[in-house]
Amino acid sequence: MLKCPVCREKVQKVWVFCPRCSARLDSSLDNKYHLESIRYLWERQEGGKFLYSNFEAVKNAGIMPYKKVESIRSVLGDFAHIYFHGLYELSLLYVVPAFAAEFYKIGKFIGYYSAYEAIETLRLEKLVNALSKTALFWEIFQNSKVQAAQKRGWRAVGAAVIDLTEIDKEKRMLKYVMDYSVESIFHNTSKPTCFLACGILCGNVESLFGDFCDGIETKCRSTGDLQCEIEAYLHEREEKPKIIPLTRDEADTLLNELIGYVINKRILDRKELGDSVHIISPQCQNYLLLSISPGHAVLSRYAGRVCGERIARESELQGLENALEYLEDLFLHLKAGILQCEKRQDRLIIRMRESVYASGVNNIHMNLCIFLAGIMEGILNEVTDKKWDVNEIKCIASGFSECEFWCKTI
Fold it and tell me: In 177-195, which positions are buried (b, 16+ CB within 10 angstroms) versus exposed (e)?
C-alpha cells in the first residue's frame, strides 16, 4: 500500500500530489519527504541582512529589553501567546520530525542578532572587542555587565530565565541553566524539547565569541528535570550539531496535550515571565522556513490544518456561526491576530489586523500567514463536514493594511 510520506494518506502511484496535504509525490514514496535545509551561515549573513532591514521585530528584540521602543502592534502588543509558539513548532515536528534541526538553526540566528543589537544598545562593543582579541577572552562571559545584559534580554522577551553556571576553559565549554523555557512547558517526553532555546543561547555566544558555538541540552523540564541545562561548546569551524528530534508519535502526544491547554485556556506557572513570548521568534521561524522552498509552504499549511481540525474536534464545535466566533476568540487569545469575518453568497472573507507573522514587515511581496490559513481551514473542515480551501489573498507583508483570506468550499 502506498502512502503519502507527509500525512500518510493512501495514494496511487500515478498521482503527482497528495489529495489531503497537497505534498508533491515523487517516484519513491517510501523515502522521506525531502526539503531544502537552512544554510545557517548564509542565512546569518545574507538572510540576516534582509530580515534586519525589513522586519521591525528583529531590530526591536535586541533593543526593547534596554530601551523603550514603539510597539509594532497597537492592540495585541509585540508578544504572542506561548501556546501559539507551541502549536507551530509541535505541528511541524509532527509532520516532519527533522524540523528540530531547522528550529535549532533559526534559534542561532535569533540569538546572534539579538545579542549583536544588545551589545550596541548598551555600548559594550569596545569592551567585547577588546576582550575577544586577547588572552582574556573568557572574561567576556565572566563580565558582570555582559551576564546581566544576557539575563535581562531573555527575561524581557519572555524566552526563559537563564544563568551561566560554569566555564570550562579546557573543554571550551559554557554551561547554562534555564527555567521556564518556551519549549519546556510539557511533561510527557523522554527527550529534551528546547531546540530553539538551545540555538538562541549558542547564537548569543557566537555573537560575543566571533567564531562558532553549538550546544547540547543535557537536562530538560519536559523530561522531569527541575531545570533545563545546556552545554555550549566553542569551536573554530562550523560543525553539525547533535540534535535528537522527537519521533512523530512523541510530537503527536505533546501536540494533543497542548491543544487541551489551548481549549481550556490553562494558565501557565511561568514566574516573572507570564504567558507570552516576543514575536521575533514566530516571525523568524515562519519567514526563514517559507523562503527556502515551496515545499515548506505546503507543510506549514498542512500543519495549521492539523491544529485547526484537532482544536475544533476537541472543543466539540458545531455550526459555522459558532466556528467563526470561536476563530475570532482563539486568534485573540493566542495573540495571532484580530479577525473580522464576513459571509458572502459564494465565500467567506476573513480579514485580519495585527498579524503575528506580518506586522512590522515591509512590503517584501510575500504572503506570510499560510500557517494561520491552515488553522482556519482545519476548523472549517471539521465543523461543516465539507472541504474548504482558505487562501490568503492580501497580506500586510505584501504592502496591504491588513491581511485578507478567501474561504471557499470545494
Answer: bbbbbbbbbbeebeebbbb
In the predicted model, what is the mean pLDDT of the chain?
88
Of the pLDDT bands very low, low, confident and very high (cuts 50, 70, 90), residue 14 is low
* Parts of the chain belonging to CATH 3.30.1380.20: 40-276
CA distances from 311 to 263, 376, 379 (A): 7, 11, 7
Q: Which CATH superfamily is domain 40-276 in?
A: Trafficking protein particle complex subunit 3 (3.30.1380.20)
Tell me the β-bridge partners of 268: none
Give the model's confidence band at 298: pLDDT under 50 very low, under 70 low, under 90 confident, else very high: confident
What does the pLDDT look like over 222-238, one tens digit per residue?
A: 999 999 999 999 988 88
89: helix, strand or coil: helix
Q: At what angle do helices 82-95 and 248-264 cross, to 10 degrees?
A: 150
Bridge-partner residues for 349, per DSSP? 342, 406
Q: What is the pLDDT of residue 33?
A: 43
Residue 391's beta-bridge partner residues? 406
Look up residue 317 and give its three cell numbers: 464545535
DSSP 24: B
User: DSSP string spanning 139-169?
Assistant: HHHH-HHHHHHHHHHHHHTTS-EEEEEEEET
Query: Considering the entire predicted model, what is its pTM?
Result: 0.90
